[in-house]
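Internal tracking record. Fields below are filled automatically when a chain is submitted to the structure queue. Please do not edit lines marked as system-generated. If the sequence contains nonstandard residues, flag them in the REMARKS field before resubmitting.
Queue: standard
Priority: normal
Entity type: single polypeptide chain
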Amino acid sequence: MSYTGKLFRTRHIYDLSKTDDLFASSVRETCSFCYNNCSDYRRILDEAGFSPEKINTIDDLADLPFIPTLYFKHHTLTSVPDRKLIIKATSSGTSGTMSRIGFDLKSLMTGSHMVINVGKYHKLWSIKPTNYIIFGYQPTKTNKTAFSKTAYGFTFFAPARSRTFALEMTDSGYKLNWDRVLKAMEKCSKSRCPMRTIGFPAYTYFLLKDMKAKGIRYKMPKGSLITMGGGWKQFYTEQPDKKEFYRLVKEVLDIDEDHIIEFFGAVEHPILYTDCRCHHFHVPAYGRVIIRDPDTLKPVKNGTIGLVNLISPMVRSTPVVSVMTDDLGVLHDEGCPCGAKSPWLEIIGRVGVADIVTCAAGGEEYLKEGS
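SYSTEM-GENERATED OUTPUT FOLLOWS
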């Protein structure tokens, strides 16, 4: 079995010290594959004077050349023939430049072990039929955004009794069907089966806020979950205090704080970061995070704000081993009350690159139309 295969089967999800050596070997393995099979990636590493063989310990990852996510929005890099790409995912919803990331079967199988383990740890798996409300795009053959794929995939954590999408495809494009969402929520409140939502935090917040303003409240069945992913993007200035958001969920849907879960990830870094009961994004064994100084790009100490550099050996079909995001973040030391041993990542905001348009950003127009 490969180093990467062993890493993604580990059950020490948040004990990084137990997987540091295996992680370094896995990164060297994936980096070597991409180096030998993608001429553009080989050129990038050669120009930086770096070779995969230099990765021997976890500390060597800081020297691994990273690729900005913006680069993938203008260049398509692959390490396997196009015919072997089972899934091609993009980062943008409706406008702007898009990252195009291809996943071969081996990369997908590797990631499946991560999903199984993370789902078990955070108790996402259930055999009880569930009604899903998806604050995102209805899947179509033309919609290749990673979020639409992952949101739909989320509905397999528990058997889907129903799926309702807030953004439905019409003859004139995606439209926010607010009335259908409300009717589905009312139906969910009368069902014996739990409800689970998945979607952009901004969508979830704005729609629940509108429900409160209109005096619409539902008591959801026991076991219902509010789950979110994709970040706040350009809505950071309107992002409420977390406690305020939790109170809103409780008031409108009667769902407690411990049943609210948020995810973090990116199409260029498809690792499942799931917040703990203290709502912290602990770094899982399947990835590593380096915070870099915005001016020097040198790693900074934990507790210091900087650019978020994400590293993972999961994907071999596209050289996304080390990517630099447009996020500003802080890596906090261990010691979270939840008991997880790994540091946790706090996303502070974005660097403000005008050229970067994301899934949630592309959905802003739908929110305006549906309000």
